[in-house]
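Tutorial, part two.
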Amino acid sequence: MCFVEAGKLEAAEQGHWATILRSLDERPLTVLAIRPRVLASVALRLPDPVDSIELPADADEIARFCARVRRRYPEETSK
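Running the prediction step on this input gives:
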């Protein structure tokens, strides 16, 4: 699993942008934390996500999201 943050630089295809693209190509499960102000800019440049959650979220929403991720990526989430 890879966790990458996307902000203003990534929205301009700078900063960690190359890391984001490489992670999406190489890893079955890549988690992107996208800052709200650049969500549209970043999301429009990416392939469709398998799943998403908007934070802050309540404990039940987070549990449902985690359960969906575990079902889709058991080999990545059992480590």
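The two ends are 9 Å apart (CA to CA). In part three we will examine how such features are distributed along the chain.
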